[in-house]
Design brief:
The chain is α+β, with helices and mostly antiparallel strands. It is built from 17 helices and 21 strands. The chain has four domains: 94 residues, Nucleic acid-binding proteins (OB fold (Dihydrolipoamide Acetyltransferase, E2P), Beta Barrel), CATH 2.40.50; 49 residues, no CATH class; 263 residues, BirA Bifunctional Protein, domain 2; 135 residues, 2-Layer Sandwich (Gyrase A, domain 2), CATH 3.30.1360.
């Protein structure tokens, strides 16, 4: 080994020892006869002192060093002189007096700083990802990810789970997103699909009698990207036999609490996690993955506001459209009329971006004799205003925002405004972790364009037992035995109790617009397996990338993935995707044909 110790492990207990270190030059300071180097590896940084009087050869080599050069140092650990200790470094009480310095490899000047945090253009980060990953913050993120995955494996192993790998090359089946297709050279004209999830296979493992399965599974979905989504991602995939909904939720809740406390060093805001019905989540927070770090609920004021003289509210209430209000504590306090106008204009722009036609508001005065501000105040009587503010528990200086439209639009706007208000007020602390279970989802959503029902999760989710008769009479009223785990405004896990009866599974296909002939072609292996003694079973999947992103307090999952894709699905470091050789396409019986241009 070129090193006897890591750069981050040396402490006063090592004083007097001769050590060998190897790493990167983090900082370089030449003070004439003495050169100081901060030497870095992924375990930390240590100060190395090269004195021309005691180590002239080492000093000569060190004179040519620059940042990010790779070097080996042999030297004596000693205490730093009084007054020069660095409390910000774990190794700050000691330094290494160099006896020899060996240049292992020089480095070009990096395109951005490695040794300090700064805002770096993301294109540069992706182009030089191997340098971006050398930065301490990125290394900490990937090490956290490693520890989370190792902890999961150990935790489930101790509870009787078996890790089973399932195929990457599988059959294309409709599961919500587009499949990535892989042509088969041995079967020309036919294609595999990369799995969107191991959903069918893990259910078949329950048929096979394994009872407790898990996998750290690679999954692939060809869909539009965003901050918490990538075309290839990793999830904890888990399935259990002879369980009910609470059994799966209790297992995952225990796992999440243990990961937070034992790996991330954070305590969740709530223990146990709240259980929120889907309807309540949408009505109060406008989202089925609400951020529960802050107590900011939308209040239904349809009855009160609908009786005002404001035409929009009157007409919407009569048409059955809800009127919701959000009270932003203290957001109008101390604002001049001009600044308040600018603030509400910004909020209205956000609301319009979420689908609203506008945004109504009132600002409460900061004194008893002050005047309520806002263009709609004149449409409310004094009694109506008092009743409204009492219902909202509004206080002096608060800003009240009103949203009224079709229910789905109201939900979208509430969610957007709620997140924005919380961010502006500093409530979205990344060090806080607020988990909540969302339950009792609708089994289906109506697809107006296709004139059919779409599963809210996937077609293998079982209805709640008491709602099974509704499949024949009122499918839109049926609830699925689905459960999602939200944390800080993200869905970090989702699962359900599955259908384990062929008869019930075949009842679902016509509802979602599939003929039985097509269903048997796509899922015949599943339907046949369901005739061989299938245990009741359920499971869950948790996105590892998204979970680690939340634990690390990062804004998107690219910060916790070693080699992610850009928003356009490209790897600009390796220049992928790229055009294949013509010979490769010939072997696969594939020809690329440009689509005809529309006239």
């Amino acid at each position: 080994m070129l090193k006897t110790h890591t750069c981050g492990e040396l402490r006063p207990a090592h004083i007097g020892q001769t050590v060998k270190l190897a790493g990167w030059v983090n900082r370089y300071r030449d003070q004439g006869g003495v050169i100081f180097i901060d030497l870095r590896d992924r375990w930390g940084v240590v100060q190395v002192v090269i004195d021309v009087a005691t180590a002239p050869d080492a000093h000569r080599v060190a004179g040519d060093l620059r940042s990010e050069y790779v070097v080996q140092v042999e030297g004596l650990v000693r205490a730093r002189p009084e007054g020069t200790q660095n409390p910000e470094l774990a190794t700050g009480e000691i330094e290494v007096e160099a006896l020899s310095v060996v240049l292992l490899n020089p480095s070009k000047t990096p395109p951005f700083y490695i040794n300090k945090e700064e805002k770096i253009d993301e294109t540069a980060r992706m182009r030089y990802r191997y340098l971006d990953l050398r930065r301490p913050r990125m290394q900490q993120n990937l090490i956290l990810r490693h520890r989370v995955v190792k902890f999961i494996r150990d935790y489930l192993d101790q509870r009787g789970f078996v890790e089973v790998e399932t195929p990457i090359l599988f059959k294309t089946t409709p599961e919500g997103a587009r499949d990535f297709l892989v042509p088969s050279r041995l079967n020309p004209g036919q294609f595999y699909a990369l799995p969107q999830s191991p959903q069918q296979l893990k259910q078949l493992l329950m048929v096979a009698g394994y009872e407790k399965y898990f996998q750290i599974a690679r999954c692939f979905r060809d869909e539009d990207l965003r901050g918490d989504r990538q075309p290839e991602f990793t999830q904890l995939d888990l399935e259990m036999s002879f369980v009910q909904r609470e059994d799966v939720m209790d297992l995952i809740e225990g796992l999440m609490i243990a990961i937070c406390e034992q790996v991330a060093g954070k305590t969740p805001c709530f223990k146990p996690f709240p259980r929120i019905k889907y309807v309540d989540a949408m009505e109060k927070y406008g989202s089925d993955k609400p951020d529960m770090r802050y107590d900011l609920e939308a209040v239904d004021v349809t009855q009160l506001a609908g009786k005002s003289a404001f035409p929009v509210f009157v007409n919407n209430a009569a048409a059955g459209k809800p009127i919701k209000a959000l009270c932003a504590p203290g957001m109008a306090a101390g604002l001049s009329g001009e600044r308040l106008k600018k603030l509400t204009a910004e909020l209205e722009t956000l609301a319009r971006g979420a689908g609203a036609k506008g945004l109504a508001w009132m600002a409460l005065p900061e004194t008893e004799d002050g005047e309520i501000k806002g263009p709609i105040g004149k449409y409310f009587t004094v009694e109506q205003k008092m009743a409204l503010f009492e219902q909202l528990a509004a206080q002096p200086g608060d800003l009240v925002l009103f949203i009224s439209d079709a229910r789905d639009v109201v939900y979208n706007v509430v969610d957007v405004l709620r997140r924005h208000i919380a961010h502006e007020l500093g409530w979205d602390d990344p060090d806080k972790l607020a988990f909540a279970w969302i339950i009792d989802f609708p089994m289906f959503y109506w697809n107006e364009e296709e004139q059919r029902w779409d599963p809210s999760q996937h077609m293998f989710t079982s209805p709640l037992p008491e709602d099974i008769p509704l499949l024949d009479t009122d499918p839109g009223a049926a609830r699925g035995s689905q459960y999602d785990l939200a944390c800080n405004g993200y869905e970090v896990a989702g699962g359900s109790i599955r259908i384990h009866s062929r008869e019930l599974q075949e009842k679902i296909f016509p509802l979602i617009g599939q003929t039985m002939e097509h269903a048997r072609e796509q899922f015949g292996h599943m339907l046949e397996a369901f005739e061989y003694g299938v245990p009741p079973h359920g499971g869950i999947a948790s996105g590892i990338d998204r979970l680690v992103m939340v634990l690390a307090g990062e804004p998107n999952i690219r910060e916790v993935i070693a080699f992610p894709k850009t928003q356009s699905g490209a790897d600009i470091m390796a220049h992928a995707p790229s055009e294949p050789e013509p010979r490769q396409l010939e072997e696969l019986w594939i020809r690329v044909v440009e689509p005809e241009k529309k006239k």
